[in-house]
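idk why but the lab printer keeps eating my pages so im just putting this in chat instead. protein + guanosine-5'-monophosphate:
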Amino acid sequence: MNTISINGEVFSLMFSEAEILRRIKEIARTISTDYLGKTPIFVGVLNGAVIFLSDLVREVTVDLEVDFLKLSSYGDEKFSSGSVKLLKDFDVHIGGRDILIVEDIVDTGLSIEFIKKLVFPRNPASVKVVTLLHKKKSQQNQNIEYVGFEIPDEFVIGYGLDHSQKYRNLRGIYRLTK
Ligand code: 5GP
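predcted complex ->
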């Protein structure tokens, strides 16, 4: 399936399931080496990161824990509203722990900035970020340790990423074609 039509908009395949899983294996190998001897907490950012997180953690070979944060989302919009709110906090204490924030996509970087401000005052041992996709914007210099794919500034769906809450279950990642 190389293109999908949704209400007159056409989305074309950007990364196949096989390409995504291949890249996840590579990232997981690096993470497993970097966290050798540690038990990091993988913190999935709901809802989009759920599918990436579940594939990623199964490729990681060190002991790990999983927790989730939920932030207010874009709603039905394709662009960031510019404001972020916390809808669900950690279930565990993160003081002294190694925190790996797991994102589906980093766009403006606002969500990551918000999470870091939430996390740092709680004195974790370390905080790193892994994102499957990163929208490259020249003016920004975000500190992201692990990136699956750099992509242009385009709206994408599938593999956890939604279009008005739907299409998260597409196996590949699709871009909106102009
Ligand atoms: P940021 O705060 O970095 O601007 O945006 C992060 C969040 O915005 C992601 O976790 C994701 O939920 C949403 N987002 C950003 N770009 C896209 C996109 O192209 N497609 C979809 N479906 N969601 C996106």
